[in-house]
Write a structure and sequence with these properties.
7-stranded antiparallel beta sheet, Beta-AFase-like_GH127_middle, about 25% strand, 8-stranded antiparallel beta sheet, Maltose phosphorylase, domain 3, alpha+beta, Non-reducing end beta-L-arabinofuranosidase-like GH127 middle domain-containing protein
Length: about 700
């Protein structure tokens, strides 16, 4: 008899336990905390089981409910930003990019892996994009995609491009499609007549497959939470009498999936870059994008276990992730796998947008304002920093200190290619090309939420928005937010309501001395509770003026370096750049691969005591378009600085900031710009006291 030792990393008592063994999947009931048992041909040693949880009837409520797609729309500069995306790469992929224009999801020949995520990624992103800018072309494209997939559902319930082929059937690639389909039903409820029966038919098949150990592979095992969220949407809104099957499928996904409650334990969580570490769990749990998606696993689990420990572990995991791998831009480092704190290591674009979405979900389930604060930082810093201003070219990896964007020699990324930080059509891997467009639309859609009793509307993400929804007792409410935020501290909000209700607005943790004026009355200090300031709004029209100033703050970084912040924005030295076209798409000349090289000195140390904030609001009241490019945002911070000796590795990236720098030139003044507008930059500076 061949023997295989399998380690059990998580369990539910009194329900089947999944034992992960190389090459096989075995189900065995476990009653004791430690035992030997023979299962098939495997000798199994069961250790250290996770504390038991008991699934309860029904789903636990979330702290806040998202509004259906289309009820929150961008206005002002944020609407323009989404127009830039629509006019850029995202809005044109359907015309020339074969993974979209010829996707096998709609009968074409094109796909990039058997995971079958290319078409579904694009669909998930562009559903919201098309609605939020009222783009009839995009809406027609996604409607065709939806119709084709539903029209070609297999008789056994399977959905996707594998129907009628010999391709392997893995569950994961369907999950982005489900998210897109859900958004379409939210926007147009008449689509539920087709979408909901198709999803239930698929769930019946998937439940059988999972019980039989089918449709599961490493990516499905780590991204199971996305399917759980789909099942919970069905349970909440369209259960169709299938509640027991939906709950059982949720439990089976959890049981067959990677054990995120253990991954996020402090004793196991990696505190450095992981390329030289051994993962005690499945390898892909330390993958950057899987980590971003896995952040949703425990809050989604909580909804069917009602177990507070799930929420506690989710919150702990979030904190550990940013403590040991976080960036001043709000995101964390993972150049394929978790990459620690060094400023030269990379962050993948896919994980940027997935962390934004996961953070929104965490906030809606748990209600802790730390999630919303970080999502806002990521959105206004890390997301725009990794795309050109016109959003036609994107990176695979961005760097905190990025002195060149080119084919790297030597390569600073242990597990990604040297082309990864080029701005282009599909540097390194194509996934971010089809997945990145979800970032801005989902941020906008989650900017407002409501309380579960429908009594209160909550403004979560600050910026220019217009919102129309109906609260309890048929209370029709309209909210218009006029602001240049985050390029201004002031938000003017006009609320029109049929009946009185409580309006709440998030006050970010970085605000100092914030005030609010109601209907022209004297401004009063904001008084947030758990991050939210409440206003009793009467029937009719109410006008609010929020002023949310912030101090300049300094963040300590490795090697005695510092990063500079004010409010939601991180500030960096914007290195002037030269540009070289490396490649151009034959069908779409705007789709280019760009090399950027520094054209000025960047080796500076700064004196943190010298920092001064400057704001030059546009006289027209309108920001330039696009705003996220060199020199265009109206805000800046100046610093006294001097040139220092700072080594370059090869010709392409900066070594670690010198921890004890010395001036090699006279004192000078440099200007720091919002991180999101920089394409080459220094965001983590050596520091010293500089005497003019």
């Amino acid at each position: 008899m061949g023997m295989v030792i399998c380690f059990v990393l998580g369990s539910f008592l009194s329900v089947p336990l999944i034992l992960h063994c190389r090459g096989q999947l075995t189900i065995q009931g476990i009653r004791d905390n430690m035992q030997w048992t023979v299962v098939g041909s495997a000798l199994v040693y069961v250790l250290g089981l996770t504390p038991a949880v008991t699934a309860q009837t029904g789903l636990a409520p979330k702290k806040f409910l998202n509004l259906p797609l289309g009820q929150v729309k961008p206005s002002g500069w944020l609407h323009d930003q989404l127009i830039v995306q629509t006019n850029g790469l995202a809005g044109h992929e359907h015309e020339f990019y074969d993974y979209v224009s010829e996707t096998d999801w709609t009968g074409g020949p094109s796909y990039y892996s058997n995971l079958e995520e290319a078409g579904s990624y694009w669909f998930n992103a562009m559903v919201a994009n098309g609605v939020l800018v009222d783009d009839a072309t995009i809406q027609s494209q996604v409607q065709y995609f939806l119709d084709y997939v539903l029209d070609h559902q297999d008789t056994d319930g399977w959905l996707g491009p594998e129907v009628g082929t010999t391709k392997p059937r893995f569950l994961w690639g369907r999950y982005p499609f489900f998210f897109g389909a859900i958004q379409m039903v939210e926007y147009n409820s008449s689509l539920a007549e087709r979408v909901v029966p198709a999803l239930h038919k698929f769930v019946s098949l998937a439940n059988t497959m999972i019980h039989n150990g089918e449709g599961l592979e490493d990516w499905t095992n780590t991204r199971w939470e996305d399917f759980v969220m789909t099942l919970q949407w069905l349970y909440d809104f369209y259960p169709e009498g299938n509640e027991d099957l939906l709950i059982d499928t949720m439990k089976m996904l959890k049981l067959t999936g990677d054990p995120w409650e253990d991954v996020f334990k402090p004793e196991y969580f990696p505190q450095t870059a992981v390329e030289d570490l051994t993962n005690p769990f499945p390898e892909l749990t330390w993958h950057g994008v899987n980590m971003a998606e896995g952040l949703k696993a425990l809050p989604s689990t909580y909804r069917f276990t009602h177990n507070q420990s799930d929420l506690d572990a989710a919150s702990t995991g979030w904190d550990l992730l940013f403590q040991y791998h976080g960036r001043p831009s709000g995101i964390y480092a993972a150049d394929e796998y978790l990459a620690g704190l060094e400023a030269v290591r990379g962050t993948e674009l896919c994980l940027v947008v997935e962390t934004m979405f996961s953070g929104s979900y965490l906030y809606q389930v748990i209600g802790d304002p730390k999630f919303a604060d970080r999502v806002e930082r990521i959105t206004y810093n890390a997301l725009p920093a990794t795309l050109t201003g016109n959003m036609w070219s994107r990176q695979y990896l961005q760097q905190q200190n990025q002195i060149a964007a080119r084919n790297m020699s030597p390569n600073p990324f242990p597990l990604d290619g040297p082309y990864s930080n080029v701005f282009g059509l599909e540097p390194n891997y194509p996934c971010c090309t089809v997945n990145h467009p979800q970032g801005w639309p989902k941020f906008i859609s989650n900017a407002f939420v409501k309380t579960p009793d429908d009594s209160s509307l909550v403004h979560v993400y600050l910026g220019p928005f217009s919102t129309q929804t109906t609260l309890a007792n048929a209370n029709k409410v309209t909210v218009n937010v006029d602001t240049l935020y985050p390029f201004s501290d002031t938000l003017n909000t006009t609320i029109t309501a049929a009946k009185a209700f409580t309006y709440q607005v998030r006050i970010p943790s970085w605000v100092t001395g914030g005030t609010i004026s109601v209907n022209g009355a004297k401004a009063k200090p904001v008084a947030p509770v758990n991050g939210l300031h409440s206003v009793k709004v009467g029937a009719g029209t109410t006008r609010l003026v929020l002023n949310l100033p912030a101090d300049i703050t300094i963040e300590s970084r490795p090697h005695n370096s510092v990063a500079v912040h004010r409010g939601p924005l991180h500030y960096a030295f914007d290195i002037s750049r030269g540009q070289k076209v490396l490649a151009q798409n034959a069908q779409q000349p705007m789709a280019v691969d760009l090399e950027f090289d520094a054209t000025e000195t960047w080796q500076y140390a700064i004196d943190p005591s010298s920092l001064q904030f400057h704001n030059e609001p546009p006289s027209s009241g309108t920001l330039p378009s696009p705003v996220f490019d060199s020199g265009l945002p109206p805000m800046s911070i100046t610093a006294t600085a001097c040139e220092i000796d700072w080594a370059i590795a090869g010709t392409t990236f900066a070594s670690a900031p010198p921890s004890s720098p010395a001036c090699t030139g006279p004192a000078t003044t440099i200007t720091l710009r919002p991180f999101g507008s920089t394409k080459l930059r220094i965001g983590e500076f050596p520091q010293l006291k500089i005497t003019a």
